[in-house]
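Task: fold both queries, return tokens.
Query 1:
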Amino acid sequence: MEFMVTVSTVAIMLLYSLPGYALVKCRKIVPASISAFATVLMYVCQSCLVVYSFQKVTYTPELFRDMLIFFVLGLFMQSMLIGLYYLIFRKKYKDVKYRIITIAGAFGNCAFMGVPLLEHLQPDYPQAVVFSAVYSISMNLIGWTVASAIIANDRKYIKVKNFLLNPAVIALCVALPLFFTGTYIGDTLIGEAVFLLGRMTTPLCMLIMGMRLASVSLKPVVTRKLNYLVLLLKQIIMPLLGLLVVFFLPISSDMKLTFYIICCCPVASVVLNFAEMLGYGQEMAANLVLLGTFMSIVTIPIMMFLSGAIS
């Protein structure tokens, strides 16, 4: 079943990217403007997606506790991997490819790929989708600080201001009061607008990938050996480490399986978004997102064979 879910998800991703690819090839969009699309995505659509995700569930003390646990797990897992890759590749950081690899090896597509997988593989556990959103928040917090500093090779991004005043945190300041008070805004004009912008995240993200791929050579996507190293790190090694991290924890097997599935997701499209916004390594990021998505047709079903170890 996970094979067919993965195939259909990848097919939808490619369909979303085609208009962006065609518009650049037809010279209706110039490559220099791609970063503007990424800025809209990161500042507006991603923020609305956070609010939208929290509106999908009803607050209970137990759910909030589990969300905090999942947030800490996501923050720990991604920080640990970025730290490890930094130690391995830091001497090569003059080459932007290795800076992109450091982030691509740790960030997974937990929203676009993760949500449909979780919905199909855990249909009786709706909390899984919420945990995916929480994991995405931890990824964005790292992205606006440490990941940005690595991609741009500039420490100015690592400061308290960037950690506290970024779209993900600002969106949380809106989402959490609504979540705690049980206030649903979907029936209001503002709520409908927020929900629509949040649902735009996936197609806009894929449009940006199509735009970038249209402006670079596709040959390096499948011929560069370094790309396959990243896939090994992200789509094989990371899930195995994730399984090890949660295996002995006193949490439910459903939470463990959710964490493992998220770790199995391919290279995150947000890596390309940060690369576009910062102006570094866009080609490498686009290549890794595309190849990782394609190869997930193979890697996710293979890794899911190990999910039986979680009980």
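Query 1 returned. Query 2:
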Amino acid sequence: MYDFNFHKPATLDAALETFESSDDGQFMAGGQTMIPVMKQRLAMPSDVIDLGAIDDLNGISAGNGLVSIGAMTPHAAVAASGTVQDAIPALAELAGRIGDPHVRNRGTIGGSIANSDPAADYPAAVLGLKAIVRTNRREVAADDFFTDLFETALDEGELIIAVDFPIADAAAYEKFENPASRFALVGVMVCRTGSDVRVAVTGAGPCAFRVTEMEQALAANFNPEALKGISIGADDLNSDIHASAEYRAHLVGVMAGRAVGRMA
């Protein structure tokens, strides 16, 4: 790990000011990705700005058909929240299946989606539930947020404040996980609100994506049988030591069918 200056501001304004005055500053949420990367000397920020003391970024509330989750809210808090369990139980279940207890108590929703790890769970929820990502500058629709491998629509110095999740009529998340890391080899979030159906996939490609053909089929007939015959192309999917692109393509259909089966 290279030398760096460490800051732990107590307010959002102070954090942003510290970033602007740094040569090469970087915000840190839970540090579950950033610290290992720095230890391997793959990153060398001049300043690390820990957001953990900013109370305004932590918390869960519900109202006006939304569940709002502060960016610094740990996964464990989302999983244990009665508000989330009552309004969007699939979201609480997803959070409870992330990593291990250490990761769930240190990792945060804002850090997870800002990192846009291809195997992270939250991107499927953000995209599937049609969430709005609120930053210190604007609001970003879920469909516009995840852009590529470890890349999002966030600009330099832009910070996630909270994520607003619309309350769906029904939702379910199914994933085929790596048994060691519990990362998703493939995870699928299916959400239904009225006649609108969204099918969001994580783990399979460079970043989370929707399967519009499945969405259209389920909008016409919300039943696992409606997904039969729909194949996912493997050309743009991930292939590694854990699973081939072709296997991941197959798993998308299997996980989507299981999710729909729980909702139908």
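Both queries returned. Flag for query 2: The mean pLDDT is 97.
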